[in-house]
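Backbone geometry:
***
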Amino acid sequence: MPIHNIRRLGPDDLDLHARLMTLFGEAFEDPATYTGARPGPDHVRRLLNDQGFVALIALSDGAVIGGLAGYELVKFERERSEFYIYDLAVAAGFRRKGVATALIGRLRGIASERGAHVIFVQADQGDGPAIAHYEGLGIREDVLHFDIPVP
């Protein structure tokens, strides 16, 4: 299935951002996180205007069918950066059709333009489809992830 349009969201794409949040909520079966307390337009515009943040969407016939949210991490030990894929999802009816690979491909281009040396992503244990997809694109590292609460 050809992807009709993959594009990076900009500060005026408030509606597309809202549609991306709905897609993430549905795909991750967690609508409360993604749609329960939506940020206001000033926050969204500031985020989408930040060159260190990347929001990509895949569109098919005007519908948001996939999306990626990532952050550029500027490194302190060398003059380079890394990109972290924070969220990546594809609508159920469009999975296994190259949408996620196309989104990551677009991020690779952005990362290359910005001089990044790697893109990294986490997958939850037990999420076989995500793990298989990422193993096909890169090198697997088994690490532990810890969330440290901020008071």
Observations:
- Strands lie at 5-8, 53-60, 63-74, 81-90, 116-121.
- Helices lie at 14-27, 31-35, 41-49, 99-113, 128-135.
